[in-house]
Amino acid sequence: MSLRLDWVGHDAAKFACEKWHYSKTVPSNKSNIIGVFEDGKYIGCVIFGLGASPSLGKPYGLGIFECCELTRIALNKHKCNVSKIVSIAIRMLKKKNNNLKLIVSFADPFREHVGIVYQACNWIYCGTSSQSEIIKLSTGPSLTRRFA
C-alpha cells in the first residue's frame, strides 16, 4: 500500500466533503487542502483553515497567522491510520507556514465524536467550548447557536 499526500484544490475538497464527511459541507473561508491518495487513488482530504473565528489564537496570545483550525478530515475507506495521515498533513502545512505555532480542532459531541483521532495524535485536550443550544427547524437542518 502506498500513501501520498499532496496539495489539491477546492473541487477535490468539495467532492470529498460531500461524499465522506458527516457535515456534507466545505468550510467557506480560505483553506489549505491536502489530498490523500492510497495506491494512486484519491481517498479524501484534510483541510486546515482560519476556522469559525478569526481570533482563534487570541486566548493563546497568537496572531491570525500563528494559529489555524483543522476543519475537516474527509476520507473514504482507507488502509492507513488517520493519525499518520494527519501527522503528514501537519508537516506539509508547517513547511508552507513557518509562523504556525498552534492547530486547534473540535470534536462534535452532537455527532458522538469524542476526538479519537486527536487522542491518537497526542493532541492536548483543552475542554469543551462554550455552551450551545440546538434549534430544530420544522423543515431543514438543526442549527447551533453558541453563547459567549
Q: How are the strands of the biggest sheet laid out side by side?
A: 1-2-3-4-5
CATH class type: Alpha Beta
Q: Indicate the mean pLDDT.
A: 84
Find the CATH topology.
Answer: Aminopeptidase
> Helix count, per DSSP?
3
Question: What class would the helix/strand composition place it in?
Answer: alpha+beta
Q: What's the end-to-end separation, in Å? A: 46 Å
Relevant CATH superfamily? Gcn5-related N-acetyltransferase (GNAT)
Cα gyration radius (Å): 16 Å
The percentage helix is 10-25%
Low-pLDDT runs: 142-148
The tally of beta strands, per DSSP, is 7
Q: Based on Cα principal axes, name the global outline.
A: globular
Characterize the largest beta sheet: strand count, sense, and whether it forms a barrel: 5 strands, mixed
Protein model, in words:
- The chain has 148 residues and is an alpha+beta fold.
- Helices cover 21% and strands 30% of the residues.
- The chain has a single domain (3-146), classed as Gcn5-related N-acetyltransferase (GNAT) (Aminopeptidase, 3-Layer(aba) Sandwich).
- The protein has 3 helices and 7 strands.
- It has a 5-stranded mixed sheet, sandwiched between helices. A two-stranded antiparallel sheet has the order 6-7.
- The longest helix is centred in the middle third of the chain and has 15 residues, at 82-96.
